[in-house]
Amino acid sequence: MTLSADLLIIQHSEGCPPGHILSYAPNATTVRMWETPTALQAMAAGQAALPSAIVVLGGTENAYADSAWPWLADVRAVLRRCHEESVPTLAVCLGMQLAVVAGGGSVAVGAAEGPETGMTRILWEETAADPLVRVLAADEWVYADHSDAVSELPAGASVLARSDKYVHVMRWGSVVGVQYHPELTADILRTWLENNPPSNADQLLADYQDAADDLAQHCQRLCEAVLGAR
Q1: Please, are residues 169 and 207 in contact by the beta-carbon 8 Å criterion?
Q2: pLDDT at 156 over 80
Q3: Helices 72-84 and 94-102: angle between axes, nearest 10 degrees
Q4: Is 38 within 8 Å of 45 (Cβ atoms)?
Q5: What's the rounded Cα separation, in Å, for the pair 25 and 18?
Q6: Contact at 8 Å (CB) between 211 and 125?
Q7: CB 3.0 to 4.6 Å from 18: which of 22, 143, 162, 218, for a disulfide?
Q8: Burial class of residue 47, CB neighbours in 10 A (0-12, 13-18, 19+)
C-alpha cells in the first residue's frame, strides 16, 4: 500500500515522528513545526490550498499550549478547514485533541481517571454505522501513552471506540482522531522509555514487541481506510 504523494504530515516534536505511517507514504511532505513554526500560516488563513490528505501527529504539550507551541492555533485552523472541505485527515493523540478543540469540543488536561500507558484494550461501537468500524472492529489492542483526554466532542462528531476510561477513536466528518499511537515503532518506543524511564519500562517494551506485527498491520489498515491509497 502506498498513500497519496500529496499527503502532508504535521510533526510537533522530534520525539514523535511519523514512524510506520511514513513507510506507507514515502513521498509525503513532513512539516517539522518546531523548526518552521510559521509553515502553516497561509494554509490556516485560507491563502493556500489544502493537500489531498493530512496526518497530525502527537506531542508532549496539551491542546491549549499555544504559549509553548505557538503554531498550535494554525494547526487547529487547518483541522477546521479539513473538516469544512472534507479533506481526509488522521489526527493522532495530541492531533485528535487539537481536532476536538478546533471543532468546539474540549479536552481534560491531566484527565481525572489517570494516564494510559502501554498496551490498551479498546472496544468498538458495534452500533456505529461507520465503515471504519467494519474495517477495524477485530483490532482490540493498541499502544497508548497519554494523560490528557477528550471530555466533550465537537457537535456532529461520533465516538467509534473507547477504552474503559476514555474516547479512543472519533470521527468528525472527514477527520478521524485516535488517542493511541498507530505510528509507533520499537525504535520510537525505546527512545520514549529512555528519555522518561518508568519503573516498568522493560515490560512496556516487551508487551509492545509481542504485539508489534499486529500493531503494524492495524496502522496500515487504519491509514488505508482513513487516508486512502493509490
Answers
A1: no
A2: yes
A3: 70
A4: no
A5: 10
A6: no
A7: 22
A8: exposed
Q: Under a CB-based contact definition with an 8 Å cutoff, are residues 57 and 9 in contact? A: yes
Which amino acid, one-letter code, is at 118?
G
Asked if 95 and 58 count as a contact pair (C-beta separation under 8 A), the reply is yes
**pTM to 2 decimal places:** 0.97
pLDDT tens for 50-59 read 999 999 999 9
Beta-bridge partner residues of 56: 10, 91
All 3 cell numbers of residue 169?
Answer: 477513536
Q: What nine digits make up the cell of 105?
A: 469540543
- Cell numbers linked to 123: 472496544
- Name the amino acid, one letter, at 70: P
Q: 81, 47 in Cβ contact below 8 A?
A: no
For the segment 35-82, what is each residue's pLDDT rounded down to a tens digit? 999 999 999 999 999 999 999 999 999 999 999 999 999 999 999 999
Report d(CA 172, CA 158) in Å as an integer. 7
